Amino acid sequence: MTAFASGKGAFGPQSWTWELRSVNGKGLDLRLRLPDWIEGLEPALRARLSSCLARGNISLGLRVQSEDRAGRLAVNEAALDDILAAMARVEARAQETGVTLAPSTPADLVAMRGVLDSSTTETETGPLRDAILADFEAPLADFLAMRAAEGAALATILSDQLDQIASLTEQAAQAAETRRAEMAGILRTQLARVMDNADGADAGRIAQELALIAVKSDVTEEIDRLRAHVAAARALLAESAPIGRKLDFLSQEFNREANTLCSKAQNTALTAIGLDLKAVIDQMREQVQNVE
In degrees, to the nearest 5, what angle opens at C-alpha 52 toward C-alphas 48 and 54? Predict the structure, then answer.
């Protein structure tokens, strides 16, 4: 199911923004874009999402910013002492050999490697990770609420479609009953044709062929299965657990029975009902792809 949620949070000098979205998918595909310097964040978020989602392509983005981006300049006292001591030795040696050196300036000293540190202060990421995980619950709740609202709307649509399938199934049963006299006449005609050309034929074989013709035109089994599938689908809609894959399988079974019904119809009215069934079932199959 499709859904979207966003949020913002902060902890100390760090602030962040969330973006969570989903689109339809046959399975659960989690795609996370997270800062890799926060230890343990990705497995925790992945586990949290997996615990409450079963289907869909889920994208989660987290952007963390720090108010102290540039950091602060600090003098490395130890490095400065080493450099000054080295400079003193150089100047002393130069005087001994009669070499005159230009005086050094503070700018020359700070330009030397190691005198100034400009990196930000390193901190433990555990408290930040815990704060981010706690803050994630708010956008996750909004996200799940949006999916639940879409699920309720889908349940209404699917329930209406099941009502249509149930109604068409009963119409098919009535049409099959009305067709019974017509089929009896067709069978008598076929029997007469067979008997007219049955000189020397095996009577048992003729009986088998006639029984096969009768079975091929009987749609009682297909109608019973359609009724059973409607009942099973309604029971699934009443469940609170994920049902998308089960409904997907059932919709395929609906389609198989409708196809068989059309192939056995041998009657204009029954064929028309079978085609209407296929149209509603196709619509239902499209909606089922959105169900978790």
Answer: 115
